[in-house]
Specification:
This protein has 193 residues and is α+β, with helices and mostly antiparallel strands. The protein has helices at 18-22, 37-48, 67-74, 79-85, 110-127, 140-146, 172-175, and strands at 59-64, 90-97, 131-135, 153-162. The N and C termini lie far apart (39 Å).
Length: 193
């Protein structure tokens, strides 16, 4: 998909897993190539084995795959995200249960743990030749209403999943941004004592 000069802005100084090094969040989805059941369930399996506080596994995923459910979820997205995300063959709502099951107390790690599960899912997608694009631009209220999400679940994100398409099919404002984003140098994100 991208390599060489396009990936140079990642400033990689250390040898890391190829799936991590190559991972980014494109917008150009191939709307004519569905995600096979085995691939979709493998992504969910990768998320399922993620670690969590007290083994709570607070994450839940609502998978919108049918044209009707994808249209319903696309309507919950911000106007800009609606312009490209609706072409993805799979849209997913990422949920996190806010309280522990064993004692009903708030689980302050619920979004951290769910983010870890999403990371596992996303890297498994990369490994299988799929692309993912998580989004924060959506209406929590509309998603909660459209998919009957219980109040004890935080709606963390919505993500598009599928195969990379043709960037030339994107609107011009997205074409110019359809490349891996630069990353901060490692010394800006870590302090070692």
């Amino acid at each position: 998909m991208f390599g060489g000069a396009e990936m140079e802005n990642r400033n990689l100084r250390y040898d890391i897993m190829p799936e991590i090094a190559a991972h980014w969040s494109p917008r150009a989805f191939d709307e004519n190539q569905p995600v096979a059941d085995d691939d979709l369930f493998a992504l969910d399996e990768a998320a399922r084995i993620a670690p969590s506080c007290f083994n709570e596994q607070p994450w839940r995923f609502i998978v919108a795959r049918s044209p009707e459910s994808r249209q319903k979820l696309t309507a919950c997205l911000s106007a800009n995200n609606q312009l490209w995300a609706g072409k993805a063959p799979v849209l997913t709502v990422i949920l996190a249960k806010a309280n522990f099951s064993h004692n009903g107390k708030p689980n302050r790690w619920h979004t951290f743990d769910t983010g870890t599960a999403w990371g596992y899912l996303s890297l498994e997608a990369q490994h299988r030749g799929l692309i993912t694009h998580p989004m924060g631009g959506f209406s929590v209220e509309l998603v909660r209403e459209a998919f009957l999400v219980p109040e004890d679940y935080s709606i963390v994100a919505v993500a598009a999943i599928g195969y990379y398409g043709n960037r030339d099919n994107l609107l011009p404002q997205f074409q110019e941004r359809e490349r891996p984003n630069p990353r901060k140098p490692i010394d800006e994100i870590i302090d070692i004592y």
